[in-house]
Amino acid sequence: MDIKSFLELEAASSSEDSLDLRSLDLVSSYDSHLMCPICHCPFVQPVRLDCDHVFCQQCLGSAIITFRSADANEFPCPSCRTPTTRISMSVPRLLVNMCDEIQVRCPSAEAGCEEVLPRGHVQSHVQKYCGFRLVPCPDESCGKMLRQKDLQTDGRCLHGYCRCERCSEDVMERDFEDHDKVLCPSLEATCNDCGSTMRRQELTKHAETCSEVSIPCAASQYGCKSKVRRVDIGTHEAQCPLISIGPYLEAQNTRLKQLELTTRHLQQRNEIFEDGMASIRASLAESARAGNGARSTQGGDRDRARTEVDESTEMANAFSSHTTQYLLSLHESLREEVNQMSHALTDLDTRASMTIMNECLRIKEDMAHTNAALNSVRMQVQWLMNPRLHNGNRANVMRANSTSNDSSRTSLTSTSVPGPSSNGASSILGSLRPRRPSDSGREGTKL
């Protein structure tokens, strides 16, 4: 197909009401060879040039209009600048199938459609099956748009207003269901954590300040999996060991990101150098071919041309060898820098692991000392309680002995006879008096 026919076909296809597949949100990854060099998106209706470079049909049409001269029958390839006169629409079917199998989201995802499907099926999904596509209102006098899922079978317009009985607010008929179930200010809802009752509109704001809501620890990004009530989060964070080493981990993460960025820049520089080396080799080969052609067409002055070609070839070979050596040495130095950065990343990871392990060991030792101190206090309390129990038992025994002694004295007094035998009676009472417990029988406790 020549350039003029291709431009006419492109103008006809662009005028159709079709979906722009390059603006879709991609879900799955794709091979870099499936990317158009102009728009940097997967191929859409790919076409091929004589130099075997492939582009999107619309992208190539825009490039031809931009770079082609007014009445020229050829234009340079956007990739290699090779003059091209014909464009082929025949592209390997495998390439088209691979582009059509890329997973994308529905264009109406922001409106609520959650469909994820291959890119080749998006056009039919939007036209036939997507309920969130905007369509004209069935009432021609309305002139507004609505979602396809909101179309009524009777063809009536949904852009009229109706009044809510609870809040006395005028709501559009197509939004009345959402208003009646969710958005009405008079609706009440109960917090699942604290049991408070409030308006449904205020439930989200209440959840941000409710003291009974379980929230993750501030060190969750460092590995803490605890979820504590908002009122107790301060106590947990004061005891969480990951909080104390959080700044160190954050600094290490920042350093790792900087090293990764530097590595990426070095890789890009390496690719640029490799591309430059390839272009230098191509230019040298082209100059050698031009020298050979000039040598064959000169005829009579063959010896002089041969000498000049040999000299230019030697200079080109010398330049090529020096350039190749320089680029190879630069490549080796870049590779060494990348290896050094890899070793540095490994070293940082090892240091971070050792720091975390040492911190955990210190915390475990502190807990062991705390448990030992607690056991010692418990034993001392038991030791202090034992003497009090023994003293209480001894007081009860002495009280019982005193009661029995008093009763025996009363009986002896009632049976005694007055007269000169009083001294004898007193001697008898003295002999019957209970013996006072000796000091050796007393129990004492010393701390």
TrEMBL record:
TRAF-type domain sequence ranges: 97-152, 179-233
Zinc finger (TRAF-type): 97-152, 179-233
Keywords annotated in UniProt: Metal-binding, Zinc, Zinc-finger
Start-end of Basic and acidic residues biased regions: 436-447
Superkingdom of the source species: Eukaryota
GO terms for MF: zinc ion binding
Composition bias, Polar residues: 399-429
Region (Disordered) location: 285-308, 392-447
Domain RING-type: 36-81
Family matches, as PANTHER family: TNF RECEPTOR ASSOCIATED FACTOR (PTHR10131), TNF RECEPTOR-ASSOCIATED FACTOR 4 (PTHR10131:SF94)
UniProt-recorded name of the protein: TRAF-like signal transducer
Taxonomic source organism: Penicillium diatomitis
